[in-house]
Amino acid sequence: MIEFCFDFVSPYSYLAWTQVLALGKRVGHEVRLKPVLFGAILSALGTKGPAEVPAKRVYVLKDVLRLGSRAGITVTVPPAHPFNPLIALRVAGLPILSEEERVRVVDALFTAPWGRGEAIDTADAVAGVLGRAGIDAAPLLVQAATPEGKDRLRRNTDEALARGAFGVPTMFVGDEMFFGFDSFRELEAYARGEDLLAPHGEVLQRWLDLPAAAVRK
């Protein structure tokens, strides 16, 4: 199984979304979709998101546009960024959705901001996006506002953190973690049983045991 941890606010998550289901089919792995709250991950680790560093904010879009062009993926920008993805993430993570329904919901909510430049940061915006995709949003929004709906997103985020996630998109194959759209080639090799890390166990262990000689204050 490939567990795909994502946040709609992340353009790299969008790029990964457009490819991850096809990757899963190629390697014969089910893809489990797990929305997480990127902002909560950053807060837990005491780090800044790319959009909070002005120079990086500009670089990220350039990088995403280049990567999208190379992969044949249409990329545009949402009305504002960063935006609040909380409602959309809660809807996407609802336990009442079948996995087939979740795929439709996630696709609509990713394509709206990054493929068409539409907002998904309010309940009305989410309802409009899902409605245009032929999905009845009303019962989903009701469920997303319940304690159970809110808890699913919180648990997904806490579990990702506990397993070592520090950003999005993060993919897990068993206990092995892969980060970022640019890790897909290595992710696919690992899922096929062709891990390029295998010959380097001694070097990896030395790294894990290596002391830090300088600490930034």
From TrEMBL:
GO molecular function, one term: isomerase activity
Pfam family, any one: DSBA
Record's catalysed reaction(s): 2-hydroxychromene-2-carboxylate = (3E)-4-(2-hydroxyphenyl)-2-oxobut-3-enoate
Sorted UniProt keywords: Isomerase
EC numbers, comma separated: 5.99.1.4
Record bears the keyword Metal-binding: no
Limits of the DSBA-like thioredoxin domain: 2-189
Isomerase found in the keyword field: yes
Gene3D superfamilies named among the record's database cross-references: Glutaredoxin (3.40.30.10)
EC category: isomerase
InterPro entries for the chain: DSBA-like_thioredoxin_dom, GST_Kappa/NadH, HCCAis_GSTk, NahD-like, Thioredoxin-like_sf
Similarity remark: Belongs to the GST superfamily. NadH family.
Protein's UniProt name: 2-hydroxychromene-2-carboxylate isomerase
Lineage, broadest ranks: Bacteria, Pseudomonadati, Myxococcota, Myxococcia, Myxococcales
